[in-house]
Design goal:
- The strands form 2 sheets. Strands 1-2 form a two-stranded antiparallel sheet.
- It has about 290 residues and is mainly alpha-helical.
- The chain has 2 domains: about 5-95; about 110-270, Intergrase catalytic core (hpI Integrase, Chain A, Orthogonal Bundle), CATH 1.10.443.
- About 30% of the residues are buried.
- A hairpin with a 5-residue loop joins strand 1 (about 165) and strand 2.
- The chain has helices at about 5-15, 20-40, 50-60, 65-85, 110-120, 130-145, 150, 180-190, 210-225, 230-245, 250-255, 260-265, 275-285, and strands at about 165, 175, 200-205, 210.
């Protein structure tokens, strides 16, 4: 069986059948593309530990450790699938999974998010509708802590009095909320829309729902304008950090972020060192 055939068989039997997210399917196929870019579409039985090791080393030169870790995990899953199908392949358990690299997430203070929104408002290059749309993109990610894939999937009819439901990772529904500023931007943006598209965010170029790539480009453009390195995930981190600094319990925060485990949410704890110091000073006494 060719490598491409093995990946596609796994995709059909596990990813599609289990109704896993589009992002999961995209990441699986991206792993295939990168492997075929480094090697030809050989028989999957011919993959050796040395080939995987060299591929991993090559990927690490241009990608983060955590990204490469994801590719290795996907390859192991396909090899495990082949083994269950009775195909004589490299034992996936012999391929070590790289350790997750712990990084300090960047985040913005609330006033910095306001500066981003204001920079769009003051930019003369925007059409009025796109200006309102892009202001809403920034505001909504920060107000609701959304992943980009969740943001672009929102329909107008999903919004109800400051709340809506998204389908997150693993197909799990999650209740989300938004603030008054975001509500005002939603009203202003939809008032200027003349299309019939049900999506909350509309692309005049494609005459349909905005894409993940467009949202990423919008945030990159705005961040360049204010001279900062910001991604949509930075805004999501900022949402979480703001909640933590204002005293939200980690369990509630984990639910709002759509994390499968509280361990994932704990990455935000380091950002509250100042709060921790203040709490210590306010409660510790030697008398």
């Amino acid at each position: 069986m060719l490598i491409s055939e093995a990946f596609n068989a796994y995709r059909q039997d596990y990813v599609v059948f289990a109704n896993q997210s589009v992002r999961t399917e995209e990441h699986l196929m991206q792993t295939l593309v990168l492997f075929l870019k480094f090697y030809s579409d050989m028989n999957i039985e011919d993959i050796t530990f040395e080939l995987v090791r060299d591929w991993k080393i090559a990927l690490t030169k241009t990608r983060s450790c955590n990204t490469v870790r994801g590719y290795i995990i996907k390859l192991r899953l396909v090899l495990r699938y082949c083994k269950l199908e009775g195909i004589n392949v490299l034992d996936p358990e012999t391929i070590p999974i790289p350790q997750r690299q712990k990084t300090t997430p960047k985040y913005l203070e609330a006033h910095e998010v306001t500066e981003l929104i204001e920079s769009i408002k003051q930019c003369p290059e925007y059409t009025h509708e796109n200006k309102l749309r892009d202001m809403l993109i920034i505001s909504m990610i920060y107000a609701s802590g959304l992943r980009v894939s969740e943001l672009v999937a929102i329909n107008q009819e999903d919004l109800h009095e400051g709340r809506f439901t998204v389908v997150g990772k693993g197909g799990k529904p999650r209740l989300c909320f938004y603030d008054d500023r975001t509500q005002d931007l939603i009203i202003a943006y939809l008032r200027h829309r003349t299309d019939k598209c049900p999506a909350l965010f509309y692309s005049p170029q494609t005459r349909g729902r905005i894409s993940v790539a467009t949202v990423q480009f919008v945030v990159k453009l705005v961040s360049c304008r204010v001279g900062k390195s910001i991604t949509p995930h930075t805004l999501r981190h900022s949402f979480a950090t703001n909640l933590m600094q204002n005293g939200m319990h980690i369990y509630e925060m984990s639910r709002l972020l759509g994390h499968a485990s509280i361990e994932t949410t704990q990455m935000y704890l380091h950002t509250t060192d100042i709060n921790l110091e203040n709490a210590y000073k306010n409660t510790h006494s030697i008398t």
